[in-house]
Amino acid sequence: MAQPTHYQTLEVHETATQAEIKRAYRRLAKQFHPDSQTETASHERIARINNAYEVIGDPSRRVMYDQERQGLSGASVEDSAAQRAKRTADMQDIYRKQRQAHQSSEAQVDAWLKLVYAPVDRLMAKVMSPLKAEIRKLSADPFDDDLMEGFQAYLDQCRTWLEQARDRFQSMANPANTAGVAADIYHCLGQLEDGVEEMERFTVSYEESYLHTGQELFRIARQLRQEAKERVKRLA
Hints:
This protein has helices spanning 6-9, 18-32, 43-56, 59-71, 74-128, 131-139, 145-169, 179-205, 208-235. The protein is mainly alpha-helical.
């Protein structure tokens, strides 16, 4: 069976204008592209369509193609068909490799989000969420030993959670396209660790500036955590 011409592949007449060829290509690419999620999606068909458009979609290459078709002998027709088949196979192979690389990248991102980002985010929430309530309780009488002991216990627990978060964060290298999320988490953890340290100074000195500085560092950390969440949404 004779191989279809590029014109037949793009479903246009041999006298079609370049604009008509371009419109036909767009229509067919949308219909048969493997990522289109349509019933007609086809790796092989889109490869042939792309190959045809590369030739007759370029006016100079189209002229050469038409001249070759007019002067081809039977043997050269077979050679040309073999060449087209090889180009189609090459394009399919390139597409498969690109698709596999994309899928591998998606899997790495999913794994990092599940195994690193999600547990670290939960630990950071554990650190930040109780702060207002803990300070409210302490404000009743900062010099009360029992209240101060309770606040110190909260800070000790924060250190434990932050150590767990830091270990989990360092357990797996982040994929390149999650660099922004990873940077936000890294800085968020740093702000929280500094904030806990400032508030521990308050438990020793009763100097309120340390408490205020700690609260401000936690506020910055909350912003960074929210920025990380927004970046994760954009990855979806």
